[in-house]
Amino acid sequence: MTDLSRISQNDFVIVGRAGMDFYPDPPGTKTEEASHFFACLGGSSANIGAAITRHGGKAALVTSVSDDAIGRFALNQLAHYGIDATHVKSVGGEARNSLAVVESRVEDHQSVIYRNGAADFEMTIDDVAAVDYADYGALITTGTVLAAEPSRSAAFHAFDLAKQAGLPLIFDLDYRPYSWPSAAVAAETYSRAGALCDIIIGNDEEFGFMAGGIDKGLDKARSLARSSAAIVVYKMGEKGAITLTADDEFRTGIFPVDALKPTGAGDSFMGGFIASMAAGHALSDCVLRGAACAAIVVSRVGCAPAMPTTAELEDFLATHPGPTEA
């Protein structure tokens, strides 16, 4: 099994997308009633990178962005968060960066995602082959990178190269149905990727999708923990999470907050969880610290700009009454 201790290097190569998020301003405004918007870095992989750098780690992104103003915005934002963009390629033609219009409200929340002709799907095998994986402590990716070609084949090639270099593979399921040609293709691809990865994080609906029904999701997570993955985190929203290894299974709660929006929690959880692993925390504490990061982000505007620093996380843990009972 892959040596997870490499994660302590705290230097990660992340394969996936960077985009732009638009938030109607001020918070609480419905999109159709807005006249002002707040723009920030978006895209699940870029958000995870921002979360890691906010915790003091290093992150390099491998993706493609459009060769236009929106792509340059994404590049400028990556630089702002200290994310290495050496392996971010600009592509011309009709490819466009993904754009999300996301409301800072919980009631009647609306998120509108524009992903037609997405630039990040133009990432190629040559792009991922240019990375020296031995320089990093782990590879992180999300399910969105697998939804179309040539990005899908490139991602699997990156998995192979990272494994050859001895890197753990960390997979956030992040299933977005609108990006896939069919549910059947998605399920087959997710299962193929899951069998290769060492740490898998997803929610009950995502594991259920992989298994063919939400009632089968936990069994799917358990099967992955017994067969191939070293750690599987099965998230259940307000019910907390179940963390599974080959020899153990435990439940953890959440940190209730007055949420401003429902988005960004998964990316923040991943960043906090991995940063905590890199810092040497016990597995159960890593899950709880990831849950605390998720709670912080849903109470703030934006995703990338809402990611907490380690100091903010420690302050939250010291002042919050604690997680719910699992």
Please characterize this protein's 3D structure.
This protein is of the alpha/beta class. It has a single domain (4-319), classed as 3-Layer(aba) Sandwich (UDP-N-acetylmuramoyl-L-alanine:D-glutamate ligase). Helices cover 35% and strands 22% of the residues. The chain is built from ten helices and 13 strands. Helix 6 packs across helix 7 and helix 8 (265-278) packs antiparallel against helix 9. The mean pLDDT is 96.
By helix and strand content, what is the structural category?
alpha/beta
What is Rg?
18 Å
- Overall mean pLDDT: 96
* Fourth CATH level, the homologous superfamily: Ribokinase
In angstroms, what separates the terminal alpha carbons? 30 Å
Remind me, CATH topology? UDP-N-acetylmuramoyl-L-alanine:D-glutamate ligase
CATH class: Alpha Beta
Order of helices and strands: EEEHEHEEEHEHEHEHHEEEHHH
Question: How many beta-strand elements?
Answer: 13
How many helices does DSSP assign?
10
**What is the CATH architecture assignment?**
3-Layer(aba) Sandwich
How many domain regions? 1
**How much of the sequence is in beta strands?**
15-25%
List the strand order in the largest sheet.
5-4-1-8-9-10-11-12-13
Q: In which range does the helix fraction lie?
A: 25-40%
Give a nutshell description of this structure.
By secondary structure, the chain is α/β, with parallel strands linked by helices.
